[in-house]
Amino acid sequence: MDDAIGSQRERELWQRIDAHDFGTAGCALPFARRLAREHGWSQAYADGAIREYKRFCFLAVAAGHVVTPSDAVDEVWHQHLTYSRDYWQRYCPEVLGSELHHEPTRGGHAQSRLHYDQYAQTLASYQRWFGPPPAEYWPDARTQTASPARWRRVDLTRGWLLPRPALPRPSRGQLLAAAVLLGVAPLLQALPLNPLDFSGPAFLLLYLVLILLGAGVVVLVRRRFRGDSDAVPRGQTLDTWAVAYLAGGTLRVVDAGVASLLAGGQAQWDSRKRRLAVSRPQDVRDYPLDEIARAAAADPALPRIVRRVKPRLQRLRDQLLSRGLLLSDGQRWRIGFASALPFALLTVFGVSKISIGLARDRPVGFLVFLTLLVGVATVLLLFRRPERTRAGDALLAELNRRHAHARRAPRDGDVGLAVALAGTTVLAGTAYAAFHESRAANNTSSSGCSSGCSSGSSCSSGSSCSSGCGGCGGGGD
């Protein structure tokens, strides 16, 4: 939040930036309206983009390191530069107190990597001063570097521009209620009291309605048995490895640990053999990295590392159980039985009608298919039980919000936590992408500038600096 800006100098800087009107106050076509018109944005989105641009400019001066804007922020910057008198004669000298340069990219893989690092650092600094960066203006690094192909200048006299339709997204409750109402209405007709004596179409309709009702019961049961979402005291924190275990169990802990070892230069990943090589496992002392390093030394194949490490992570599980963030085995089995019961009864109901239909020489093929699906759902609900309590889900959601910058563009020091929260997907586009690609069985590799240069610009406070793929760079004094 803006009130996180601390020193008097920083507050005065922000007040000047926030109050700046781009020299178009009172004009028939002010800055914000022109921005919305030229980019096809709503006025609300354009106003938000201007807000983010101002925050970016604050970071360029106050953060003390090179900063890189997102695409939306860069578009605002481009437009501001066209108001050259305001930008160079008022904004830079009077508002920012220093020059803020914008320079095209030189291109190349090194520039791409440089600007990834700058973007990651920018998001981290943004979080420090303003809270979690809004995803609609500050996307993850992979989206940011892959986005330039989406941008085109369009002459509307030579072509049509049709917006992608925004389809309504009803909630699950609304869909369930609508389906039940549509299904029940025909059943209000005069029918036998015994549903097993219903005609084939009427019974199928009833069966579909009961399936939907059963799904609603399952949702309510699983919600009720998993406790309250506010059962954990506010401000509770977890270390990286407890977060990883909470988010994805043993495998997530190993993934986060491997990423941390790679970032720390303590291990190398062989993408061809899909093996982890730890040069000096005896030097790795922090738990559970030490367990992962020793397991890798014994057998570097990742699946066997996971099997070896699993029993050694019990302390993480015990910690999360004691805090009410994970469900015990007994709780999980109770949830499985309770949520599978409605579908088990429906399976019996369907089998009974199938038996009667066969005895009466009636077609039952579609009912057999539905009953098999319900039976499969029963087994899945029984054995695919939730791991976390609702409080665990709530804490994980809060941690994702609190560390949004790390999820979108992790720095080396954030790699372990980013993987703990979101999995190895966050490594795409980083120096450790090969590990993610091996994990995802994806043979494509990250490319340099050819994978997409953004606006290809950079900024610096007080001096010119280079730019590259994936965005712009800027720096403070």
Protein described:
The protein has 477 residues and is an all-alpha fold. It contains 19 helices and four strands. A hairpin with a 4-residue loop joins strand 2 and strand 3 (275-278). Helix 10 (240-263) crosses helix 18 and helix 11 crosses helix 12.
Strand line-up across the major sheet: 1-4
Number of strands: 4
Secondary-structure element pattern, one letter each: HHHHHEHHHHHEEHHHHHHHHHE
**Termini separation:** 23 Å
Q: What portion of residues belong to β-strands?
A: under 5%
Could you estimate the helical fraction of the residues in percent?
55-70%
The major beta sheet can be summarized as: 2 strands, antiparallel
Question: Treating each run of at least 4 consecutive H or I residues as one helix, how many helices?
Answer: 19
Q: Mean pLDDT, nearest integer? A: 83
> What value does the Rg take, in angstroms?
28 Å
Unreliable spans are: 442-458, 460-477
Q: Looking at the structure, what is the overall shape?
A: globular
Which structural class do the helices and strands define?
mainly alpha
State the gist of this model.
By secondary structure, this protein is mainly α. It has helices at 8-19, 31-39, 43-62, 71-82, 84-96, 109-130, 141-146, 172-187, 200-225, 240-263, 289-298, 302-309, 314-322, 329-359, 365-383, 390-402, 404-408, 415-422, 433-439; strands at 103-104, 267-270, 275-278, 457-458. The two termini are 23 Å apart.
